[in-house]
Structures are given as C-alpha cells and as structure tokens.
Amino acid sequence: MLAFRWILSLIYVVLNAVVMLLIGIIFLPWALISPKGARAACMCYCAWVIWLAKWLIGLKVEVRGTPPSGEVLIAAKHQSFLDIMVIYYHSPQAKYIMKREILWTPVIGLYAYRIGCVPVNRGKRGQAIKKMISDVKSGAATAGQLVIYSQGTRVKPGELAPYKVGTFALYDQLKQPCVPVATNAGLFWPKGTITRKAGVAVVEFLEPIAPGKAQAEFMAELEDVVETKSNDLMREAGFDV
Length: 241
Description:
By secondary structure, the protein is α/β, with parallel strands linked by helices.
C-alpha cells in the first residue's frame, strides 16, 4: 500500500512538472506582452495541481473563510507547496514576497516576476526589509494582495519557528488590513518527500487585523490566531499537536 502511494505520488510530481513546462511555453508570448498572460498561466497551473491532487491521489482542498479581494496584506502559514497554489488560486491578484533565488528557477522565476512578486535577499535581514518595503511602495510590485510567509520558510507540522518582523514592517508601511491564513496542508503534502497523502487539506482565511496596531500587539495577535487555528485544523485531520 505504501509503495502504491509512493508510485502515485511520483506520477503526480512528474505530471505537474511536465504540465508546468507546457503551460509555461504556451502562455509565454502573452506573458511577455502583459502580466495578465502570466497571471492566467499561473491560475491555469494552480487549477491543474488542485484538480489532479483530488483525481489521482485523493487529496481534496477545502477553502474556509473569505478570500480577500481588495488591497490587503496576507500573512500566511506555510507548510507546503500546496498552500501557495491554493492561496493564489483563490485571490484575485496575489503576489508573493519570495526569496531572490526563485527568480533563476526555470519557468517559475519568469512568471513570478511577471505577476509582480517581490524578491528579497534573506541573508541580509535589515537590507532585505528596506528593499522589500521600497519595492512595494515604489510600484515595483503590482496592485493586489501581497502574500508574506511570516515565518520565512516552510514549517513542518508540529515544529516551532519564530514569526519575523518583516511582516510588521509591511503592515506598518502599507497601512492596509492584514488577513491571517492558517493551514494543515503540510500533513498531506509534506516537506522533503515525494509522498502525497489522501485527505482534506484546509486553507482558512481568518478575520482581518485592522491597520494601526503597534508592533508587539500586532505580532502577538498574528502568531496567536494563525498558530491556534493551524493547530485546530491539524487536530481535525488527526494530527496530535
């Protein structure tokens, strides 16, 4: 049974890579002309990833809460490549704060740049925050929903990682509501393995945090609501937090 699950997962990974390349080639002329083409390609790929997960490996996606449609900062829990796909697919104009190295990734780098993602150098924290704010405020990033992973990386279910101050820096400078997002996706699409598990991966958009809060209050509230809800979702899926 485990071997069969691994084979299905391998087929899923290979098909996703092939389809990513095909979509990247097909949409390339439009994407080079207009960011709308890049966004259409990304939406198409996300739809494929989510559909194939359900059809091939029995992994369904459930979205709870209300995805934002206006100008907001989305501060999300990051457990899996899947939560990236789900947030993007359900947000009208999502773009991500991402590590600069992604720009050099075939297909992904070009399309990330064209949809307005903001690359940062994670190795130079102070400079990265200043550059990130500068790019967002100067218009280097397009309008829409700016997504940041507050812990800075994927975090395995049950592991602890600090929430980084860059989220507050953006919240403070942009003067926009912050929409926290919780998930249990890492239980089914784990980091560091090919195996994908059957079940229901949940991504939940939580109540927005109003602009104007002080750093300590904002960071404490963000961490509390995201971690509490993510732990609830993992318990719901049978994980002992």
